Amino acid sequence: MSFENNDYFCIKHKNMETSAFISGFNRLPERIQQQVVEYTELLLATLNSNNKKKNQFQFDWEDGLSGLKNKYSSVELQHQANTLR
After folding, report:
1. Per-residue pLDDT averaged across 23-31, rounded?
2. Main-chain phi, psi angles of 13, to 5 degrees
3. Model's pTM, two decimal places?
4. Domain coordinates in residue numbering, the chain
């Protein structure tokens, strides 16, 4: 679908003008408007989640394999890792 000739949206140089977007949004059926709102909320939640993950490095993986240190040597683990690649 090309947005260049779409009656609902106006895109100039790949950037939507806010007023054109709102005008197009207001002309959409109510159920489609609700879908746009829900999708926007999903995008914002994803963005917020990604920003939190980028800003906070966590060590929750630390000592995750400590129970295996008596079972495998580091050389055995390296060999196993190489076979999985």
Report:
1. 93
2. 50, 45
3. 0.42
4. 1-57
